[in-house]
Amino acid sequence: MSGLTVARRLDWDEEESYFHSESDIKLRVDNVTKEFYVKGFGKAPDQTTVIALDGLTLEVKRGEFLVLLGPSGCGKTTLLDMFAGLSFPTSGSISIDGQPIKEPGLDRGIVFQQYALFPWLTTFENVEFVLANNNAPKKERVKKVKELIKMVGLEGFENHYPYQLSGGMKQRAAIARTLTFDPEILLMDEPFGALDSQIRELLQQELLHIRDQTGKSILFITHSIEEAVYLADRVAVLTARPGKIKQIIDVPISRRERLESEDIRSDPLFSETRHLLWTLLRDEMSKSQEIKEGKAHED
Amino acid sequence: MKIKNIALSILETLKSVAAIFCLLLLWEIAPRLQWVDPFFIPPLSSILVAFWHLILSGEWEKLALVSLKRVFIGYSISVVIALPLGFIIGWFKRCERILNPLLQALRQVNATTILPLFILMFGIGEVSKISIIAYSGIWSVFMNTINGVKNVDPLLIKCAKSLKLSNWQIFRKVAFPAALPSVFTGLRYGITIALLLLISAEMLGGTSGIGYAINNWQMLSKAEQMWSGILTMVIFGLVFNYSFIALEKRMSRWKEDAPRG
Ligand SMILES: Nc1ncnc2c1ncn2[C@@H]1O[C@H](COP(=O)(O)OP(=O)(O)O)[C@@H](O)[C@H]1O
Ligand SMILES: [Mg+2]
Question: Where in chain B are the domains?
Fold first, then answer.
C-alpha cells in the first residue's frame, strides 16, 4: 500500500518537470486586498466597508490547473473579476506574465457559472461571437467554430438557441466560445456549479481532456471539495471572508491517472486528499456561517 | 405528440371562432326580436349592407385613407422621436436617473386631457390631430425602449466586457438585441393608443376621417353607417395588433415564451 503511494508520488515529481521551472509563473496575485464601500440606507445610513479579500497571495504556474476552493461569499468571484480586468485591487497587484492587469483582454478566457451565452444567438453564433466581432476571415472562422463545436460535443445543435439547450450543453458552448480566441489562461468561476452531478462529472472529465489537448493554464473556482480533488494539480484553500489563502496543497494524483483510471474517485489517495481538504474547509465553512448569522442578527 | 398538439390547437381555434360566431348571431337575432332597440343596434346584416354601400360609393375609402394617413404620420413621428431617445436614455444610467421623475410625471398627462390644449395651440386642422397622435404614441414606445435597454442582464454586459468589446460594440451587439422584444411590445402599445387618439381627435374637431364620420352619422341617426365606422376601427385595430404581434414574435424567436395576443 505504502509502496504504491511512493510510486505515485514519484510519478507526480516527474510531472513537475512539466512546469518548466519555478520561475515560470503565468498569473501572480501579490498581497491583494479588495474593499467594497457599501452605502448605508434606512436605519443604518453610515457607509460601511466590506473587506472581501485581505492580503491574498497566489501564483498560477504556466500549464498548471489550479483550483481555488473556498466557502461561498469568501471573495472568489471578486478575485476573478480582477483577473478579468473588470475591477481592480484596493491594494496589492495582479499580473500576467509579469505585466499588471489593466483592462480586459483576450489572453484570458472567462467561463461564468451562469454560462453568459447571448440568448438571441444560436450555438454557432455564440461560439463565433468573438471571432466575428474581431472580423476574422469568414472561412477560417467557420472552420474553427465547427472544429470547437465538435470538440465540446455539440454537433447537431449549431442552430439551437440557448433556451433550447440543457445546462451542460450551454456550458459546453460557453467553453467553446472561450477557446475560439485561444487564451493562454482559462478562468472558470464555478462553471459546473449549477449542473446535476452526472453531467457535472462528465464535464469535469471533458475539461481534463480539453486541458490535455490544449495545454492551457487553468484557474478554476469551486466550493466543491470533490471537484477540486478531481481536477486540480494544486488546490488553494481560501479562508472565510475576508478571503486569504489558508493553505495550498498538491494533489498527489497524476494527470495520466485521472484520464486513464476508470474510477479515480474511489482511489485511497483521492479520499485522503478529499479528507484533508475537508478538514481545512470545515472550520471556514462554520466561520462563514457565523458571519452570515451575525449579519442576520444585525438586521 | 405533434398530431395531438395540432388537434388541440385546431380545437382552440374552433372554440374561439365559435364564440365570435355566437356573438354575431346574437347581433342578428336580438334586434329582430326586439330584445334591443334596432334603432340603436340594427341587425348585423343591415349594417353589413350599409357598409357595402359605403364601400361601393367610394365614401369609405376616402374616410379611411384620411384617418390612416393621420395615424401613419403621427405614429411615425412618435417612433422617430421615442426610439432613439429611449435607447440613449436607457443606455446612459445617469441620464435615466435624472430624467426618470420628470418622465414619470409627464407620462401621467393623459393625451385626451390635453387634446383641447393642442387644439388651442394648433387649431382644429391637421397639425393638432397629428401632434396629439404623435404625443400619445410616444410614451409606450419610449418607456418600453428605456426598460428594454436598462434591463439587459448585467452578466451579459460583464461577459461582453471581458470579451474586450468596446462600449459602442456592447451597445450594438448586446444591449440592442436584448432590448428588441421590449421595444416591439412598446411599438404595439403605441399604435393601439395612436388609433384611440385618432378617433378622439377626429370627433372633437374635424371635418373628415372615420372618427368624424362616426360622430356625424350618430347625429344624423344613421345607425347602420355609424356601426360601419365602428367596425372599421375594430378591423384596423385587429390588423395592426396582429401584424405587430407577428413582428414581435419574430423578434423574440430566441425567447422561451414568445408573446401572444
Ligand atoms: N460590488 C459589491 N459591493 C459590495 N459588496 C460586494 C460586492 N461584490 C461582492 N461583495 C461582497 O464581497 C464578498 C465576496 O463576494 P464574492 O466574491 O461574490 O464571493 P464568492 O464568489 O466567493 O461566493 C461577499 O460578502 C459580497 O457580499
Ligand atoms: Mg461566486
Answer: 1-41, 43-251
d(CA A45, CA A259): 55
Provide the CATH number for the domain formed by B43-251 in this structure: 1.10.3720.10
- For residue B41, give the DSSP letter: S
Task: Enumerate the domain spans of chain A.
Answer: 2-107+183-298
pLDDT averaged over chain A?
Answer: 86
Which stretches of chain B drop beneath a pLDDT of 50?
259-261
**Is the CB of B253 inside 8 Å of chain A's CB atoms?**
yes
> What is the average pLDDT across A66-77?
90
* Position A23 confidence tier, pLDDT thresholds 50, 70, 90: low
Model confidence at A5: pLDDT above 50: no
What is the spatial distance between Cα B201 and Cα B213, in angstroms, rounded to a whole number?
A: 12
Task: Determine contact: B161 vs chain A, CB below 8 A.
Answer: yes
Q: Which residues numbered 128-157 in B keep a CB inside 8 Å of some CB on A?
A: 155-156
One-letter amino acid for residue B152 of the chain: V
Contact A66, A60 (CB under 8 A): yes
Asked whether residue A19 carries a pLDDT value surpassing 60, the answer given is: no
Is the interface score ipTM higher than 0.90?
no
Residue closest via CA to ligand 1's atom 2 equals: A36
Local structure of residue B36 (DSSP, 8 states): S
Please tell me the number of the ligand nearest to residue A189's CA. Answer: 2
Q: What number of residues does chain B have?
A: 261
Q: How far, in Å, is the centroid of ligand 2 from the Cα of A140? A: 36
Query: How close A209 comes to chain B (CA, Å)?
Result: 24
Three-state SS string across chain A, please? CHHHHHHHHHHHHHHHCCCCCCCCEEEEEEEEEEEEEECCECCECCCEEEEEEEEEEEEEECCCEEEEECCCCCCHHHHHHHHHCCCCCCEEEEEECCEECCCCCCCEEEECCCCCCCCCCCHHHHHHHHHHHCCCCHHHHHHHHHHHHHHCCCCCCCCCCHHHCCHHHHHHHHHHHHHHCCCCEEEEECCCCCCCHHHHHHHHHHHHHHHHHHCCEEEEEECCHHHHHHHCCEEEEECCCCECEEEEEECCCCHHHHHHCCCHHHCHHHHHHHHHHHHHHHHHHHHHHHHHHHHHHHC
Answering whether pTM is above 0.90, one says no
* Separation in Å, CA of B144 to nearest CA in chain A: 18
Task: State in words which class domain A2-107+183-298 has.
Answer: alpha beta
In the sheet where A48-61 sits, what is the strand order?
Answer: A48-61, A25-38, A91-96, A99-100
Indicate the pLDDT class of residue A295, thresholds 50, 70 and 90: low
- What is the residue type of A247? Q
Q: How far is the CA of A72 from the centre of ligand 1 (A)?
A: 9
Q: What is the mean pLDDT of residues A2-16?
A: 42
What tens digit of pLDDT does each residue of A220-239 get? 999 899 999 999 999 999 98
Query: What was the pLDDT predicted at B38?
Result: 87
Average of per-residue pLDDT across A142-153:
94
Question: How do residues A83-133 score in pLDDT, each as one tens digit?
Answer: 999 999 999 999 999 899 999 999 999 999 999 999 999 999 999 999 999
